[in-house]
Amino acid sequence: MAEIIDGKKIAADIRSSLKQRIEELKKTRGRTPGIVVILVGNDPASQIYVRNKKRACEEVGISSRVHQLPETVTQGALVSIIEGYNNDPEVDGILVQLPLPEQISEEQIQNAIDPRKDVDGFHLLNEGALFSGRSGVLSCTPQGIIELIRSTGTEIEGKHAVVVGRSTIVGKPVAMMLLENNATVTICHSRTPDLADKCADADILVVATGQPELIGADHVKEGAVVIDVGTNRVGDSLVGDVDFEAVSEKAGYITPVPGGVGPMTIAMLLANTVDSYERGH
User: Fold this and answer.
1) H/E element holding 166?
2) Which of 130, 158, 210, 227 lies 20 to 30 Å from 83, alpha-carbon distance?
3) What residues act catalytically?
């Protein structure tokens, strides 16, 4: 039976460590780290995400502001607001909550943020730094996945890691992070033939497809580390991209849904904000 990787506990430990770090930094710098979250429109899910982020910031001592904008805001107006925060010395992190309305280009907005304040890690320069093996801000969910794998005591170096999913938000960056940690990496996707056979060869299996319970026991190697990034609503329940009950009988370690990857994403956002504060601008 697999051991559950408790993302809530690991994230809580990270937040506790960040709180102590912030208290020490405040003594020497005279202020706390600051983040601005820009929320466009009134999407209920986005409002919940932003509220959770604000609460997490307050818990560790990060000063957080929510800049609410109407659904009708123009791209030019949004870029001007971002540029103002780029030049604000008390703002260390800028996050634009996605999705954005159709009149706004998400790519252009993400690239309008100063890459040093891009605590989501989505700016083209930060993505390029990751893919070229240079220092940059790492995107939060993939960074959290690496921490979850490390928490098991598994040595990533030398392992075969299979990533199912090729999104620019999770699949591709986590594959590169695993490669940087000296794993041998295979990326699978919707066009991959014999998916079960390829997954079953993985020592580390990361699944981010948005397809409920796509991965079953026949996809998993005995004793593998399985990281389930998916969150899918099926009826009244939330389920992952992995059939948790079936795979738990075979894997060595597995993340639950919810309570696995999700809490780590916010923890890494906080860590990126504190790192930005430490670097200064």
Assistant:
1) none
2) 130
3) 53, 97, 120
H helices present in the chain, as ranges: 7-29, 44-60, 75-86, 106-112, 124-131, 140-151, 171-180, 195-199, 244-248, 261-279
What pLDDT, in 10s, does the model give residues 129-156? 999 999 999 999 999 999 999 999 999 9
Whole-model pTM: value is 0.95
Q: Which residue's entry shows tokens 């923890």?
A: 267
CA-based nearest residue to 146, from 206, 198, 200, 223: 206
| pLDDT tens digits, one per residue of 182-233 | 999 999 998 999 999 999 999 999 999 999 999 999 999 999 999 999 999 9
**215 - beta bridge partners?**
242
**Residue 19 neighbours by CB under 8 Å, 6+ apart:** 59, 60, 61
The SS3 call for residue 156 is: coil
Across all residues in the chain, what is the average pLDDT?
Answer: 96
Q: Bin 4: left if φ > 0, else alpha if -120 < ψ < 50, else beta.
A: beta
